[in-house]
Write a structure and sequence with these properties.
Helix content is 24%, strand content 19%. The protein is an alpha+beta fold and 68 residues long. A two-stranded parallel ribbon has the order 1-2.
């Protein structure tokens, strides 16, 4: 998981949802921009799930993510 929020805010969020995976902070939007998910205006990233295999190859992109 990657978010544009600060590490502190991400830590609190991950704890609140009981996340078992690491939530990374992309405060400058560099990663979101590289994957083409930075929303217009740059205030947030699209809620897409990008599945990357062990070789680093994108296998699938889910653009229909339901955050609920």
């Amino acid at each position: 998981m990657v978010s544009l929020d600060s590490p502190e805010r991400n830590r609190e969020f991950a704890k609140s949802i009981g996340a078992e995976s690491t939530l990374l902070s992309d405060v400058d939007g560099k990663v979101a921009r590289a994957y083409g998910v930075l929303a217009p205006g740059g205030g947030y990233a699209q809620r897409w799930t990008i599945f990357i295999d062990r070789s680093g190859v994108i296998q699938r992109i889910d653009r229909e993510v339901d955050p609920g």
